[in-house]
Design a protein that fits this description.
CATH superfamily of the largest domain: Histidine kinase-like ATPase, C-terminal domain
Radius of gyration: 29 Å
Length: about 650
């Protein structure tokens, strides 16, 4: 019950790790799958920091059958012994926020990713239990914590003698805090492989005891091999990726680049002290600036551009680029924006990276002029394509108010009566039949219906010109009203939600993929801002007889169907082949009514990973797609879309 009282008694002090449990999102970003995996990164980063400092050669990560995680390394082992606080140093590391050996340039670490010193303690706070061993000084030191960081033993246990050295952390996330505690092997695998690429000679072994998987990663050529992997299956313009490393102003800079013949846009992966900087930062700004300047200098020098020509833009010189940029930054000047360390804020990094990349590329391209000639020709083609796309977009604007688009739209779109873009929803519906039911069943005040009548283009393989010639996509662009590509402005969108509503079959799933590819590539902010959804229509209708008459239940999964029918003796079941089989009131009740419907929101947690997935699944190259399918899809002998009817 609320009260107006606000005095000294209103102020609450959260002791120990209570603050973390009270507001976990402040420390790990979220309590969904992303936050769950962030616990792994915190412990893994501590082990990797030992490798960065030259003390560790092997790290193992094990996913246990109960979804606990065990991470070991052969570094120096956690510090033990009395800390000035009065507690043992190992206990301090796991129970006190901002306690660690990474705050001073003269401390235990010259460079590290675990800047804030909260990693181990946050993992402890958000776990059911944490079991820690330190192999150090010929002894095995042990401590266990539970229920948010409470120690089992006041003093560290000594389990015996050992010749080993290193650390071991075994933890189980608290299921009362996280929405899921199911670890994803592929997500952890990608991070582990990244670590192996970023530290030459480091060996990381990943084991999943749930399904008996085990892989080992180690790379002598580091990020050069990383770029080769990112370019796999593509036609490379440069025979071997460019690679350079240099230290300047105590910042170590490594970068490797490749250009792909038939790819568009860029694919840049940047890291600082082995931590992925998904939101870029000052180092990426310096890298892009150096690349653009170097290309323009050579373009004018070699006559690709004339004096009267405008210089290349950054997007021109990065078209088809695959790059990995890795920095090692001293703790004394390291600045991340936020605890999750996804954006570098160190000002000096910009000028250092710009100087190193400029100098190394100048040297390389001077010695390899045929390579820069081919890259400049590609940049020139990218500029021509950009200008052609601008003209095409301009032509779309010119025909907006009249002629073909509006004529086509008048026979397709059933608009909402409201003009309030903050509440309006656009349903993109597969087929005229479903579109008819959706038009009749919708709430006309805020729901618009756009049926798809023709083929949806795979925009991952299409040019801008082809996209604008495609009637379905052109109509969508006009309907949403926020332009597309580089001109897309989410503030001008006519709808707060864009909902893809297709049949629950293979064709429907294919249409979803094609539309999501288009939105991701050409209306990116619509996706990254969570404005795109997939409607989830029911798979079955189950009818049973009751004393009061027929009872109808709509079922959305096979598992739910089995659960409902296992105790029923008499029932009729209908498997919906498509949306068109439902009448208007059924479609409204099950799939469109905001009070009862289920929508799947499309989220992008890792843009680079999403970009890579779209390239693999929707691009031209077959081999990477085949490998992805082999690793991620299991095919059942039973046809998932078989229609069955069970009666009395």
């Amino acid at each position: 019950m609320a009260t107006d009282k606000y005095d000294a008694s209103s102020i609450q002090i959260l002791e120990g790790l209570e603050a973390v449990r009270k507001r976990p999102g402040m420390y790990i970003g979220s309590t969904d799958s992303r936050g769950l995996h962030h616990l792994v990164w915190e412990v893994l980063d501590n082990a990797v920091d030992e490798a960065l400092s030259g003390y560790c050669k092997n790290i193992t990560i094990t996913i246990k059958e109960d979804n606990s995680i065990l991470i070991t390394d052969d570094g120096r082992g956690f510090p033990v012994g009395k800390h000035k606080s009065g507690d043992d140093a190992l206990n301090v590391i796991f129970t006190v926020l901002h306690a660690g050996g990474k705050f001073s340039e003269n401390g235990a670490y010259k460079t590290s990713g675990g800047l804030h010193g909260v990693g181990a303690s946050v993992v402890n706070a958000l776990s059911e239990w944490v079991d820690v061993k330190a192999y150090k000084n010929g002894k095995i030191y042990h401590q266990k914590f539970s229920n948010g960081g409470k120690k089992y033993n006041k003093e560290l246990e000594i389990l015996g003698d050992t010749k080993k050295h290193g650390s071991e952390v075994w933890f189980k996330p608290d299921h009362t805090i996280f929405s899921t505690t199911l670890f994803n092997y592929q997500t952890i695998r990608e991070r582990v492989q990244e670590c192996a690429f970023l530290i030459k000679g480091l060996t990381l072994t990943l084991t999943d005891e749930r399904n008996k998987q085990k892989e080992t990663f180690s790379y002598d050529n580091g990020i050069l091999e990383y770029v080769e992997l990112l370019s796999e299956g593509k036609t490379n313009i440069i025979e071997k990726p460019i690679y350079f490393e240099q230290e300047l102003s105590k910042i170590n800079v490594e970068f490797s680049i490749q250009y792909l013949k038939d790819s568009y846009g860029d694919n840049i992966h940047s890291f600082v002290n082995n931590v992925r900087t998904k939101d870029a930062g000052t180092h990426e700004v310096g890298f892009k600036t150096a690349l653009t300047k170097t290309f323009n200098d050579f373009a004018y020098k070699l006559g690709i551009l004339k004096e009267k020509d405008a210089p290349f833009e950054g997007a021109d010189v990065r078209d088809g680029l695959v790059a990995v940029l890795s920095l090692k930054v001293p703790e004394s000047i390291l600045e991340f924006e936020g605890q999750t360390k996804e954006k570098l804020g160190t000002p000096l990094a910009k000028s250092v990276v710009e100087d190193v990349v400029s100098d190394k590329l100048l040297y390389f391209f001077t010695e390899n002029q045929p390579i820069i000639q081919s890259l400049l020709q590609r940049a020139y083609q990218a500029r021509m394509a950009r200008e052609a796309a601008r003209k095409a977009r301009d032509s779309v604007r010119l025909i907006k108010s009249k002629t073909k688009v509006e004529q086509n739209l008048s026979g397709k779109l059933s608009p909402a009566s409201s003009k309030n873009s903050k509440i309006n929803e656009l349903f993109i519906v597969e087929g005229d039949s479903a579109g008819g039911s959706a038009k009749q069943g919708r709430d006309r005040r805020f729901q618009a219906i756009l049926p798809l009548r023709g083929k949806v283009l795979n925009t991952e393989k299409a040019s801008i010109e082809d996209i604008l010639k495609n009637e379905e996509l052109n109509t969508m662009i006009y309907t949403i009203g926020a332009s597309f590509g580089k001109d897309f402005n989410i503030k001008k969108s006519n709808y707060d939600k864009v909902i893809i509503m297709t049949d629950a079959d293979v064709d429907g799933a294919h249409i979803q993929c094609l539309l999501l590819t288009f939105f991701f590539r050409y209306m990116t902010d619509l996706v990254t801002n969570g404005k795109v959804y997939i409607a989830k229509p029911p798979l079955y209708k189950i009818e049973t007889s009751t004393p009061k008459g027929k009872k109808v239940q709509y079922v959305y999964s096979d598992e739910e169907k089995e659960e409902i029918t296992k105790n029923l003796k008499k029932y009729n079941i209908q498997r919906y082949k498509g949306l068109g089989e439902m009448n208007a009131d059924q479609l409204w009740e099950t799939t469109m009514d905001p009070k009862t419907r289920t929508l799947i929101q499309i989220k992008v947690e890792d843009f680079a990973e999403a970009d890579s997935s779209v390239r693999i699944l929707m691009g031209d190259d077959v081999d990477p797609r085949k490998r992805w399918i082999d690793n991620n899809v299991s095919f059942n002998e039973i046809d998932d879309f078989e229609v069955r009817k069970e009666e009395e």
